[in-house]
Amino acid sequence: MAPLGAKTAVFALSPLSCLRSFPFLPPPLFVRRVAASPSQKGRRWTAAARRSHPVCQVSSTEAVGDGDEDGVSRATLLWRAAKLPIYSVALVPLTVGTTAAYLQTGLFFIERYLVILSASVLVITWLNLSNDVYDFDTGADRNKKESVVNIIGSRGVTQFAANASLVLGFFGLLWACSETGDLRFISLVTFAILCGYVYQCPPFRLSYQGLGEPLCFAAFGPFATTAFYFSTSTKNLSSGIGPLPLTGTILVSSFLVGLTTTLILFCSHFHQIDGDLAVGKMSPLVRIGTITGSKFVKYGVISLYILSLASSLCKILPVTCLFLCALTIPMGKLVIDFVEKNHEPPRHRESKSSEEKTKPRDESTNTFQAAFDSSMEVPAATRDRRFDALGNLSVLQDEILCAILDLLSPLDLARLSCVSSVMYILSNEEPLWMSQCLRDGGLLEYKGTWKKTTLYRQNLSTTNNVGQEPLRFDGFNSLFLYRRWYRCFTSLRAFSLDSGDMQRKKIITLEEFHSEFDGKKPVLLTELANTWPSRTKWTMEQLSYNYGDVEFGISQRSSKKVTMKFRDYVSYMEVQHDEDPLYIFDDKFGEAAPKLLDDYSVPYLFQEDYFDVLSPDKRPSFRWLIVGPERSGASWHVDPALTSAWNTLLVGRKRWALYPPGRVPAGVTVHVNEEDGDVNVDSPTSLQWWLDIYPQLADHDKPLECTQFPGETIFVPSGWWHCVLNLETTIAVTQNFVNKSNFEFVCLDMAPGHRHKGVCRAGLLAVEDSILRDLKIDEFSKTNSLSDSAEHALSETHTKTMNRNFSYDISFLSKFLDQSRDHYNSVWSPSNSIGQREMREWLHKLWILKPAIRDLIWKGAQLTLDISKWYACLVEVCTYHNLPPPLDDERFPVGTGSNPVYLVSNHVIKIYAEGCLNSSIHSLATELEFYHLLQSSNSSLKDHVPSVFASGILAEESGSLQIFPWDGKGVPHVLGNCSLIRDYTDDPVPFGVWSKKKYELTDPETVSSRSIWPYIITSRCKGDIFANLRDTLSMDDALHLALFLGDQLRNLHRLPVPKFPNKNNLNFNNASMQVTSQDNGISPDLELIIATLNSRKREAKKRLTSWGHPIPRHLIEKVDAYIPHDLMTLLDLMKDDDGSYSVTVSPTWVHSDIMDDNIIMEPCEHIPCYEDRSCVPSAINGKIDSDDIEGGIRKWQPTHIIDFSNLTIGDPLCDLIPIYLDVFRGDVALLKHFMRSYKLPISKASVRGKRSRGALENPGNFKRISYRAMCYCILHDENVLGAIFSLWKELRNAQSWEEVEEAVWGELNNY
Q1: Which of 246, 318, 772, 1161 minimizes the number of CB atoms within 10 Å of its CB?
Q2: What's the DSSP call for residue 667?
Q3: What DSSP character marks residue 280?
Q4: Closest Cα to residue 997, out of 1066, 1052, 951?
C-alpha cells in the first residue's frame, strides 16, 4: 500500500497476483505428522512428495477415496452432493416477493413465477457446482466424498455444467425482465448474482475472509426478494399496474428472508469447520468458535420470531404471517437444540474414545486445534489456548498480529510477551527479532539468534537472560507460523533442473550479441569467465582468509545500510535458518577490497558503458559482489533505470525466472507515485514465490527459467523482470550498464511523470482505457518489439497470453510521457539512479566526449530534458540579438543547474525555466536589479561578475517564438494580461528582490509546462569552472581560492541593498508565518526576513523526514527543541536603552549558491606560493599531494563568481554554508583563510556589550556563532544536512544537534 496521503497508481497482473495476500495458500509440500516415540520430546516432521499443479482430471475411485469403507453408496453421495434443500433459498425469496406483490396488486403471473423459479434454481446450481470446483482447486474438498468433482471424477465437466446453468438461468431472468418492463428487477437480480460470484470465485473469494454471511444476506434478502417483488410489475398499462412502489412490507420481508438465509449458511459450516480451517477459510464460525457460534444461532432464531411478531403487530406484515411463523417454532427449537448439542468439531468428537464419551464434554474445544488434529497427532484432551490468551485479538489472523508486533520496540515486545502464552510465542518469533535488529542499520555481528543479537546491539542483554530455555506451550497451532517455519528449514538441494528454454551459448561475436540478444532476450554464456582468476580464488575459505575483517554491505529490506565483516557473515551463514537469509550485496566492494577488481574483467560483450564518463562519486551504483546461502535471493524486480545487466556465477547454483517487459509476475504489485514517479515493487521473497506461487501457475503463465552453474554468465536485457533463488551457497559478481541499445530507455525512465514508468514495468495495466483510446494503441501492434523478441525467448505457450498491443519500443513508450510537465526541472523521482544535476552533467559530457553518437544522445535528451524546445529558444535569442548561430558543440546546455545555460561564442545565454513563471520573472528581475546597483557602485566586485549584454522574455504564440526585450524595470507588455503575475506595484522594479521575498511566502504554484520564459545574456568568462578543476588544484591554488572568496563575499555584503518599499503591506494569510514576537520597533524588511524563516521552520521536520538518509532519524525528532522558538534571535537583535530592538549585523545581499560550478578559474603563470604557511589546508578535495606542499607553485587563479539567479536578502552568514560545505568540503584550514580575508563582523553582540535578544531565551546558545550557522543549515530549503552527514559520516551517531554543531561550525566561535 502507498503511504497515506500519497497519490499512487497500482498495477497488478492476473488473479494470481492476489495469491500472496492470502495466508491460506496450500503449501507446495504435503507435511505429515509422524508419531514420536515415548522417549522423544517435541515434534518431528517429514516431508512427503511435492505437489505439482492442481490436478484437473481424477478417476472416480480417486475422487471418492475412502467413501466405501463407511458403507456410503455412490447414490447416497450423489444425493448429498445435490443438496436439494439448499434450493429453498431460490423458492423462499421468490415466493415471499411475489406474495408481497400480490398483497399490493392482487395479481399473480403463474408462468412468470415458474420461469423465474427455474432460472433461480439454475443460478443456485451454478453457485453450488462452482463452489465445488473452487474448493477442489484449493484442496478444501480433497477428502470430501460428497464433492461433485470427486464423484464424477472430472473438474472440467463440473465447471462446464456450472457455466451452462448460469447462462440458461440468466436467459430466463432476461425473459422475465422483458415481461415486467421494470429494469429494477434485472438490476437487483444482477447484484444478487454478483454477490454470489465475489462470495466464492477468484480473485475475490470473500467467503475465505469471513464475508460469506453478509453477502448471502444481501443477495437473498434485499436484492433477490425485492427483485422478485418487482417481477409482478407489468408494462401493460391497461391493467392499471405500473412499476411497483417500495413498501414497508417488502422491505421487512426481504430483511427477514435475508436473515433466515444467513442463518442457514452459518449453520452449514458446523460440520465442515475442519475443512475450512485446513485451507485457511476464515468463516465467521471459524473466527468466533463453535461455542459462540451455537449461541449466535440461538439468538438469531429467537430474533426472527421477535421481528415477525413486531412487524405483524405494527401491521407491516399481515396477521397470517404471524400464524405461519408460529407453525415453524418446533423446527426452530430443533435447530437450536441440535446446534447446542453438536457444536464441537466433528474430528474432535471422532477422536474421543468410547470411555471418554461417557464423561461430560469439555466446556469448549478450540477450532484451530481441531484443524491441526488431522495432520498432527496432538492428544485430543489438549485445550486450545488461543482464545483465552488473545481475547478479542483472536479474530485477527496471525499474519496481521505479527505485522502489528513488528511496529513495536524491543522493550515493548518484552512486556507483551509477559501478557499471555500466545503473546509469548508471537513475541519470540525469530523473523520478528530479525526485523528489529536490522531496523537500526550499521555494523552487525550475529550472536546465534536474532533476539540475542538485537538485545546485544541495544545494550539490553544481561547475564540473567543468557542460556535460559524458552518456555513451551501446547494447545496453539498456526498455519501461518508453520509455513514460515517450513521455509526456514526447507532444503533446495534436490530442486529440479529447468526445462531448457533459455538459450546457452559458448562464445558469440559482438555482432551476433547485438543482433540476436542485446535489448531483445536473455542468454546464458558459458565460457566468458574461463580465464578469470576469481574462478579459483573466490571461495568462501579464501575470501574469509583474505578479507575476513573487511566490511561488506548486506542486502535486506531495511531503510538503513547494514554491514558485516566477511568473517562474521560466514559464521552467520553457517548457522542461520532464516526465511529470507541475509546475503552480501555490496556496490562498494571495489573500494573496500580493491584487489577483488583484479580477479575479473568486464566481458568484451558488455564493455560499452555510457556511464563511465562520470566520475566515480557521481555515477550511479553499477557493480555488486553477491554472496548468499541457500534459500536467499533477489525477489522480483526490474533493474534500476531500465539498464541491462550481466551476472557471472563463480560458486554454487542459482535458479532464475524471467518475464518480458510489461508483464508483471504473479504475486507482484507495482506502485508508482503520481506526484514524483517513485516506483515501488511489492513482491514476496524469492523463496516464498518459488514455493507458494510458482506451483500454482499454469504452463502458459510460467516464466522463462534457467539454472545457472559456476562459470556461467547470464545477460538480462533492459526492462526484463527477474527473480533469483540461491539453491546453495553462491558467490557472484554483476554489473549494470548503459549502451546504445538501452540508452533511450534509461533516459525515458529518468523523465518526470509516472505513467511511462508504470507502462515500462506493468504494460498497459498502468494506463486508463480513455488514454489508450486517445493514443490509438492498435496502430502499434504491427511493430510490437516485445512480441518479436519474446517469441524467441519464450515457448509458444508463453506467447499466447502476451498482450499484443504492448510494445517495448521507445516510440511506443514515449507516447505515455507527461507532456504537461516541464521536463527540465520537474520533481525528480527518488527511485531514479542518479540525481537531476548529475543527469544533466552526464548528458553534456556524453555530448562533448562522444560526438559519434550525438544523434542518439539528442534523442535521449529529448525524452529527459525536452532538449529540442530549449534549443529552439536558443536559436531565436541568437537570431534576435544578432549573435552567431550555435556550433554543434554549443547546441547542448552546460552546467548542472535548473536553468538551461548555453555557451555561444563569447556569450552565455541563460533561460529561466526553474519553477513557475512568477518565480522566473522574479529571479531575472532580482538579478538585473543587482547588476544595476553593482554598476552604479564603486565596488571592485564588478570586475569579478560577468557583464550583462541583453535580457528579455521569450513567448510562444501561435506555435512561434517571439522576443520581448526587458531590463527588469516596469511590467513588460507580454505580462500585462498574464494571470500568473499578480500584486505588482508601481515601483520602478516591481519584481525586484523585496517582491521576490514576499512572493516566496505565498503558496507555491504548480510547476507545469509553460510558454513564457525570461532569459539573460552575459559575457562569457575565460577558463573553466572550479568543479572541473578540483582534482588538479595545488595546495596554493586552494589557499588563493579561499582568500579570493573572502574578498568577494566582503564586497558583496557591503553592497547597498534596495530600499524597502514601505507602502507594501505585509499581509500573511497563514498565521504560522507571522513573526513570533509582538514587540514594537521591528522594521518591515526584518519582519519579511523573519517571516521567511518562520515558514521554513514550520515545515522543517517534514522536510528533513522526506530527505531521509543520511540525516539521522533521532536527530530529526530533536529539531524543534534545538531551533529557537523566536527566530528573530538568529538575526542577533540587540535591545537598546529605550526597549526597542535593532539588528547588529544588517541584512545584506546573499548569493545563496556559491558552489563549485559557479566559480570560474583561469590558468596563470607559475608564481611563488603565499609566504604565510601558518595554516595549511588538508585538501581541497579530501587529500593533498606532498609534492605540491614542497613545490608551492600555483597554476590556476579564480576570476569570477557567476549565476546570481538565487539572489536574496538575509543574514550574510547564509553565504558561508555552500562555500564551506561544497567548495571547501569541510576543510577548516580553508575556512580560516576565508575568514581572514572576509574581515566583516558576523556578530557585534559581544563587542558592544549589549544584551542580545537571544539571551532572553537561551543565553548559552546565542553566544555561539556556530549555533546560528547550524540553525540556518536546518532551515535551509536545500538538503544541506545531507551534505553535512555525508562529509562527516561519524556524526550520524551523534546524540544531539549540539554535537553536530561543534564538529561542523565550531571554528566560527574563534572568529
Answers
A1: 246
A2: T
A3: T
A4: 1066
